[in-house]
Design a protein that fits this description.
This protein has 286 residues and is of the alpha+beta class. The chain has a 4-stranded antiparallel β-sheet with strand order 2-3-1-4, sandwiched between helices. Helix 4 packs antiparallel against helix 5. The N terminus is likely disordered.
């Protein structure tokens, strides 16, 4: 008679606070890397900045921690895995680092507003779409500063509101871009390119502010990865401005606007999904 295999009683459920995520793709990247280790369960939420994982044993759990750290994020083990009010150790968040985060918020949100205005002035939908990325990054960092010690439900509710707000902005840009197809009037290429170049400079400035503090948080690689991803959108706007200047058509501006806004909508939807999952988990525990 064949004996059925017994369950692995050594499995470990662990919950972490993840510092260094600034977009939905960060959560996807962490989940993908950890799944390659053959873990039993992995859930990463950009909304609550938490990672829930089930490992085979302590050795695999240590391997998971090393893998996530190598990606450029800091893991802090929560004191009580089952308690939605559990708090993490934030002793690494120094006053200087907190000030740096506030500077990043001001740079991102401030220039996001400026770039939206620039989009209206230059008649560029790509500028408006690129501005959403600045606003999204700034608001996520802002939530991280204010809600560092909030419990799961409070962070999830705040993230849900944020995700809905950002999603509404993204839909507005997409709808306005669709309406611009009929007009066929090209944007002011010179202004469009100028705002795009300034956007790239702002991203570099935000990275420069964070670099000295990454040894106490996520590593320096993470800063450059985030900045590189943001810079791709800035560069696309500048390239589109050049093509508009050469061709005199509106299509380069509209194509870039649809692409950037579509990526932004995907990120906002990820935030909403994670927030709803966190709220559902909180209701189950209640």
């Amino acid at each position: 008679m064949t004996q059925r295999p017994t369950e692995n009683v050594a499995s470990i459920d662990a919950q972490y606070r993840v510092t260094g995520m600034d977009c939905g793709s960060c959560a996807t990247k962490i989940e993908g890397a950890v799944r390659k280790l053959g873990v039993e369960r992995i859930e990463v939420s950009i909304a609550s900045e938490r990672m829930n994982v089930t490992a085979r044993d302590a050795a695999q759990l240590e391997q998971i921690e090393q893998t996530v750290a190598a990606l450029g994020y800091r893991l802090t083990r929560l004191l009580d895995d089952a308690d939605e009010n559990a708090v993490a150790d934030f002793s690494h968040v120094t006053p200087a680092y907190r000030r740096a985060l506030w500077i990043v918020v001001l740079l991102n949100v401030g220039y996001g507003i400026i770039e939206i205005m620039g989009g209206f002035i230059a008649g560029s939908q790509a500028l408006k779409a690129d501005a959403l990325d600045f606003l999204g990054d700034g608001l996520i960092t802002f939530l991280g500063i204010l809600a560092a010690s909030w419990h799961l439900k409070a962070r999830a509710r705040a993230a849900l509101v944020q995700g809905i707000f950002l999603g509404a902005l993204g839909l507005w840009v997409v709808a306005e871009t669709a309406m611009r197809i009929a007009s066929g009037e090209p944007p002011e290429a010179g202004l469009m390119g100028l705002f795009g170049i300034i956007a790239l400079a702002v991203n570099i400035a935000a990275a420069w502010v964070l670099v000295p503090h990454r040894t106490g948080d996520a590593n320096m690689q993470a800063v450059w990865l985030f900045s590189r991803n943001d810079a791709i959108g800035n560069a696309a706007v500048v390239v589109a401005a050049g093509v508009v200047a050469l061709t005199g058509t509106v299509w380069p501006d509209l194509i870039v606007a649809f692409i950037v806004a579509g990526l932004f909508l995907h990120s906002s939807w990820t935030i909403i999904q994670h927030a709803r999952r966190d709220l559902a988990a909180g209701r189950k525990r209640a």
